[in-house]
Amino acid sequence: MKQFKRLDHPPRFAECILRMILPDGGWDTPLGDFEELYKNISMEKGYIFARFWYWSQVVKLIPVKIVNSLYWRKIMISNYLKMALRNFRRHKIYSFINIMGLAIGMACCILVFLYVNHELSYDKYHMDGDRIYRIAQNIRKDVAELDTARVATPLIPAVRESILEVESAARFQLATWDSLVERGEKKYYEDWVMIAENDLFDVFTIPFLRGNPEKALDRPRTVVITERVAQRYFGQDDPVGQTLRLWGNQVEVTGVISDCPKNTHLKYDIIISLNGFERIWNLDNWGWTGFYAYVKLRPNVEPKNFEDKIRHIADIYAKKKLEEWREDFTFYLQPISSIHLRSNLVLEIGSSGNPRDIYIFSVIGILILLISCINFTNLATARSTDRAKEVGVRKVMGAHRSQLTRQFLLESILASFVSLMASVIIVVLALPYFNMLTGHSFERYQLFNPKIILMLLGFSVFIGVMAGSYPAFLLSRFMTVRVLKGLKGLTSKGNLMRKVLVVAQFSITILMAIGTLSVYKQIGFMKNKHLGFDKHQKLIIPTDMSDRYESIKNEFLNYPTITGATACWNVPGRLTNLIEARLVGEIEEKTQSMNFYYVDSDFIPEYKIEIIAGRSFQKDIQTDIEGTFILNKTAYEAFGFSFPEEAIGKKMYEGGSGGIGTIIGVTEDFHYKGLQTKVEPLVLQWRPDYFSYLSLTVKTENLSGTLSFVRKKWNELQLGGLFSYFFLDEDFNRHYQSEESLGRLYAALTALAIFLSCLGLAGLSSFTAEQRTKEIGIRKILGASVPNILILLVSEFMKWVMVACVIAWPAAYFIINRWLQGFAYRTSLSFWLFGLSAAFALFVAILTVGYQSLKAAVANPVDSLRYE
Amino acid sequence: MKLITRAEELILLAVWKLGGNAYCVPIRAQISEITGENWSLGSIYMPLDRLVKKGYLLSYLSDSTPERGGRHKRIYKLTDIGVKALLHVRQVQAEMWRDVPESFRKA
User: Fold this and answer.
1) What are the Cα distances from residue A671, in Å, to A276, A698, A726, A821, A853?
2) Is the confidence at residue A1, as pLDDT, over 50?
């Protein structure tokens, strides 16, 4: 029965469509007719036929309907367009503010999109990228734990040999020392020299322009160079088969590859064959986390299964050694595309991205867009009185409400399209500055790919609808009679909405201002905090000194403005050597991973590092060389001593060269890394054979004279390679580069937000002043002074900016607190920043509103009262 | 007076014949039956609308009935000018046919 009933009724969906097609209000009878007829047919020829008939009727109607409506719409649309253009032309300044505001917001959004898109595109270009993983290593020793991006050297051969799920596996090392590349007269330091095997080209997508990827790195002393490097040394010549000098050795070029893309965490300028390095490196040492390891899994291999197999692979190959070291190695996988943003391990290649920054940027981009949309909406509603008459007349002439909504929406979409064009121009013009701010290098052509264009178009329609829907809704609602009779009380609703929007706008602005100030405060804090060593006036020169270092130092010390000279393996702020260390002869031999610095005997006094126990290295005690250690405070604490004095005289083993020595001193902690991270255990050792930097303490006067002397001396002493130098404080501050560029970007975006908010406020206040012209005139006649009127007009806006402050403060407090948590050493959150930004917002708002109000206030009341 | 079209003429006649029950479904049924062609509802609506606009027909909503899913019928009634229009078209036709030879008429 039920079945019958269902079939008795025409198909519901078809009926629904039919109802939509038929004109409003007129569908009742025809639907009845159709249903009756459906039943007749169903009775005669069966319900299947009847259903078919019903559907065919509906389908036949659709094209007729579309053509019909398009025809009428075309006429109406052309009329809407005409009205929109007339309106644009009549209110030039208003339209300009409107469109430019929106365009700036959009441009901002596009730039942010470019940036975010770039950050998200890291390592997505590799073929079969979803099957490529990096292997990372977790080293656990007692309680200490360390995650490194580089893994034990023999891991990859072990994986290749024993695990079938792997299609190819690559390992490489990046030269952490300076790489001087020479060819005849051309000498340059190259940044990234990679030491690798042919498998590298199987795992990663590295296109070869010349040479054979399968054999390029077969022989020792063969290199593959990027196009840029090839251009640098060989110009237009074919580099394949030719030679270069790298690290003083002759190497043969066997291939040319495309330049390292910007959106990869890998870095390479020159790739040299690993073959031959086994003579100087012990590649079978499981204790040396020397290589980056990547695998490409076979298709359909579950990464989890593979990960299970390698997790404890070290136990199979080096169980004895691990027990001896009492270490526990765990290997795990990281999808290659997630490395840039999600991974931040020890020994990461270059600097990794920060998902938090991306998040913040996206939010700011959207907020700025929101501000400009609010401007748009606000100005449109403010102007609604202007358009009210038009609406009234249209309604009298029989316009539907839906038609009016459509008209205003169309107008705002049109405006947003125009803004889009303008924004593209702005983006193209602003791109160089944007690159300067972010340190990226975006190109114009990146804008003009179909994906972005499509997105932009969709985007502008969306914004048009978003920004225009409120005015459209508001304007179309006007009562015809009321509109045509007079405009009293017409915009009270709009007023409230406008106030809410202004509050929202200023909340965002104040929030951003507080954020920017806090970022700068933190940067200033990090730059000015005493690091525990003296980073000032240190001129650092990469030098190959070997055993001559004492005499070299003295040569430089002769010059009057050079007050100190010392040598070291690496300078604070740069890489350390991570080596295991263990106390010898103790009941509990605690093994730790520690950072090692190899320094000269006078390094500690020269850098003004405070000794809290024991003594520093003594120049005249020859056994201090190699045989002694100085720990920092964190290191002795890591060994479990409770007083620094306890550590003195203890024997310690270090895993780098396998030597045992005595601890002779403990220093106060100093920040040899950026202030983002906590100070880690550090061991100082006097090892002249490692020295590669000469550090000179110079006076600030006659710096150029000093420099030219140093250069001359350096050439005279033939210290090898190319002369280069840097100042330690500048070098150290590079740690804060990402924060600084963040700060600059925030500042720029905040300035923009303030500008946009003011633009909106200016438009709004001029309309308010205009609306109240009569009131002002009457007030003036009754004796109000110009300041009275100014206060009257300005105070209204001030109220709302104040409310905005109250909303923005807690939000800012919460967000900035979270941001600061990311720093091990951070500045306090100071409340004067909150006050300052609020005061600034108020000041700017008063300035904007004040100008408009002043114009209204000083106007002659006679004119204003005559204004209708 | 402007001439009505053939479809309009057919519909007016159908409405007249159906008397108080002249709404879309029976009108279509009757015209389809007599002409032997399958008229769609749409082809009835259009002239019906036009005729109402011209004033040849009046329409009103009748009660709803269950077989129509509870929807109203729109009943049409001939107006005086509607009748006149019908008579007019018939007269014109007769005039036109008058001198046509008998032999032709039979063929």
Assistant:
1) 38, 22, 19, 18, 55
2) no
Does residue A841 sit within a domain?
Answer: yes
Number of cross-chain residue pairs from A and B with Cβ atoms under 8 Å apart: 47
Smallest Cβ–Cβ distance between B72 and the set A29, A40, A61 belongs to: A29
Q: Based on the domain organization, do A292 and A151 belong to the same domain?
A: yes
pLDDT at A488 over 60: no
**Record: contact A32-B28, CB cut-off 8 A:** no
pLDDT tens digits, B45-99: 888 888 888 889 988 888 777 777 778 888 888 999 999 999 999 999 999 988 8
Question: Each residue of A327-363: pLDDT tens digit?
Answer: 788 888 888 888 888 877 777 777 677 787 788 888 8
Contact (CB, 8 A) for A672 and A572 = yes
| Mean pLDDT computed over every residue of chain A | 81
Decide if A33 and B72 are in contact by the 8 Å CB cutoff: no
In a domain, residue A104? The reply is: no
Output b/e per residue, A719-756; b: 16+ Cβ within 10 A: bebeeebbbbeebbbebbebbbbbbbbbbbbbebbbeb
Number of domains forming the structure of chain A: 4
Q: In A, which residues are within 8 Å of B68 by CB distance?
A: 32-33, 35-36
Asked if B24 and A35 come within 8 Å (Cβ–Cβ), the reply is no
Range of the domain at A676: 538-732
Q: Which of A139-153, A240-254, A469-483, A772-786 has the lowest mean pLDDT?
A: A469-483
Instruction: Quote the crossing angle between the two packed helices A401-438 and A450-476, to the nearest 10°.
Output: 140
0.80 exceeded by pTM: no
Same domain, A819 and A724: no
Architecture of domain B6-99: Orthogonal Bundle (1.10)
Query: Do A36 and B67 lie within an 8 Å CB cutoff?
Result: yes
Mark whether A277 and A295 lie in a shared domain: yes
